[in-house]
Model the fold of this input.
Amino acid sequence: MLSFEQLRHTLARLDGRGYKAYKDIEGAFRHERFVLFIDHVQGDPFASPSKIRVRVPQSVAGLPSSLFANRVRRIALQDFLTRTVHRAIRQISHGHRGMGKSGLIAIDVGGQEVLERTAVVITDQWVEARLHVGLPAQGRTILGRQAEAMLCQELPQIVHQGLCWNQLDYAEGERFVSCVENQEAIRSQLDERGLIAFVGDGAILPRASGASEKPLVSGQVQPFRSPDSLRVTFSLPNPIDHLGHRTTTITGMGIPKGVTLIVGGGYHGKSTLLRALERGVYPHIPGDGREWVVTSREAMKIRAEDGRRIERVDISGFITNLPFGQDTTQFSTDNASGSTSQAASILEALEVGATALLLDEDTSATNFMVRDARMQALVNKAHEPITPFLDRVRELYQTYGVSTILVMGGCGDYFDVADTVIMMREYLPHDVTQEAHHIAKTLGTNRQREVPFAMPPLVPRIPLAESIDPSRGRREVKIDTKALDLILFGEETLDLHAVEQLVDISQTRAIGCAIHLAAQRFMDDKQPVREIVRAIDQLFDKEGLDLLDPFHRAGHHPGNFARPRPLEIAAALNRLRSVRMRQQR
Done:
């Protein structure tokens, strides 16, 4: 291992040479406070940035062991330190130096949600931050002196200010970790309490804008307050300052298992509540306003998705008797309609273990959700292949134990099947279940229930490994993540715009690589989708996310992955247009 002084001399020697000479600095360099690993040097100033790691011994970092004493706390502290390093970079780095990405120093920092990431790793012996840097150049000429300033002057300051505990706000770090642990403690109690979600009193649900997930801070914000009939109390492992006093309990609205409607006038907060519940499958940072919105980890948002691919899904419980005798027990299409896509998405979610469905009428196919009495009178059931969701939603709960939370502002027919009805009025919830049930009894719709047969059993599907090809041109593996909802997988474009619970592009990046890893390790043409994504998730628990990098070598950093849920990995696999499956009968 070389010294930092040798790194300085090398950078001075490289000044003015061609860019490829930067390869001379790959390796490890010892600073008095940390070790710098330069794992990969970019090919030119416009290529993907270089990858480096800084590893600080715990004797220097001084991280309190109590803050990473269990898995939840470790993930929370790693996320917190990623944010402190990001903050230090913004304060210390001088930014642009030369052309292309010259001068860049970056870490893969998250948004409002706290996710398991690869950007910072904590062990009992050390803490390591994985960074991306743009080595400076003018044209293809190395700016060695500027590189020296970045790596030998700015970087030590960033390490000191971002990773050394004596430079950080202890109370802020403890509050961050405790907040995440409290949220996961609530989540762990939901099932035994008969709930699928919880929204704490005092939560702030509205966001700053349609383009921002930060909380709305206007004076018009209405803090959430549970109706008395739905209020529950949870015990917390860490004391909090809540509603003006320090306590180890929190109260709020519990959403029971079963069928729940969210109703109300336009602009009164129905979709805002559902959006918070969608994001509630992840813990949130302190101050987000939704840190006390906690949803079952197995809740899946479902929407219509015109044009998506469907591969051998048994959708006969919702769609059957198609014209020209097309089989819906093994249904495939490259261009699904809204209703067909929504039916398939529900069955695919159930296939991999979803226990709750989240739906909004605004993003659903109308003919899939309901057929009213007048339409039934005009179009005879014999000529209508769709069994509306309205007529299956209770059966999904009674037969499969799958709950539903549905935003519905325009169809009171759902009152007949709802266990709980929550009305949002000026962003406050009101329990109107009894009133809705009374209306259902006294104000009939004359609608006939359209259930030709019981919901058929779920049919597992087995993906065929040879249908998953990440190669492009001469590259055996070429997986690029272009946006939160877009992956280039080999020659194929994978569109995830309807997978709405993805919150971080690093999750999307992980999904592309997870599909490739699954094909290599677990797809033997015998294992169904559910077992494959479960095996991937267990592998993450055992070995971490580093193994997702298809070019990963021991000790090198894949520092830009965040953990997706198995539900999203399966959803992406189902949308891969090349994938072929067979049913397990």
